Backbone:
């Protein structure tokens, strides 16, 4: 499955991402942010090139647009790097950047595996392993949390911050929903609805006396609930029990977060 040309391309992309992540903390603004922006582009465009190079990609009846594969690695790179720069210092800065690079490397490899056509289609190799899709899904939720907290802590105004936060949640939801690919306009509409709901919630939460981490976790919980229900609905698998399960998990975790907030004053 993994050929020599892929290993070369994969190594080049990871080298560029790692160099950008490790060099940006040592530069002064705005050069550090310019280098970080180039690193985000390198991770997204690298995902595009790696997916297009998959030998099974041409066997899709309708090839998925490769630019969708930008979303998760680019958001994880941006979220991990900005969270690290805002909240970690000293040797933990390098640890955070290295952890971000390792996460991006894993996501890029899993996305390459997921570029294989579904089972039963013409083409070489087997269907992509289910673990790869699970890892990408977890990476989407991790990127959402890191971006939520980083945006809340960025110093943007309330209007600009909530709009950026909602836009990021919509992009990540689109990446989560796009598995079906049969009606992309429908997936985009649901992602837009989710973005609007998260934007409204983030606007309301900024009036409450809660820390940025707790606020980010509550937004992540809302993203988990909304995206999970919409995702199952788009796949035709939403049932009463699945809805109850999502609601119970959300209620329990939300109660724990509110208790933690009250205990911390």
Residues:
């Amino acid at each position: 499955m993994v050929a020599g040309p892929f290993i070369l391309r994969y190594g080049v992309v990871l080298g560029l991402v790692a160099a950008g992540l490790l060099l940006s903390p040592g530069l002064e603004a705005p050069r550090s942010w310019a280098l970080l922006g180039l690193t985000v582009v390198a991770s997204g465009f690298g995902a595009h090139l790696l997916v297009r190079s998959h030998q099974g990609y041409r066997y899709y009846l309708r090839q998925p647009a490769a630019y969708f594969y930008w979303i998760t690695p680019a958001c994880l790179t941006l979220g991990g790097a900005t969270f690290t720069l805002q909240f970690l210092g000293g040797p933990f800065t390098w640890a955070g950047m290295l952890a971000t690079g390792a996460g991006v490397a894993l996501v890029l490899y899993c996305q390459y595996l997921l570029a294989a056509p579904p089972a039963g289609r013409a083409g070489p190799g087997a269907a992509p392993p289910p673990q790869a899709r699970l890892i990408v899904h977890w990476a989407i939720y991790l990127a959402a949390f890191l971006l939520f907290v980083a945006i809340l802590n960025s110093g943007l105004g309330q209007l600009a911050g909530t709009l950026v936060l909602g836009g990021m949640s919509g992009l990540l939801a689109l990446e989560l929903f796009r598995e079906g690919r049969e009606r992309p306009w429908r997936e985009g509409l649901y992602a837009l609805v989710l973005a609007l709901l998260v934007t409204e919630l983030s606007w309301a939460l900024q009036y409450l006396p809660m820390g940025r981490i707790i606020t980010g976790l509550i937004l992540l919980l809302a993203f988990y609930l909304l995206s999970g229900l919409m995702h199952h609905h788009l796949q035709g698998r939403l049932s009463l029990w699945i809805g109850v399960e999502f609601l119970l998990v959300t209620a329990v975790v939300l109660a724990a977060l509110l208790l933690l907030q009250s205990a911390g004053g």
Notes: The two ends are 53 Å apart (CA to CA).
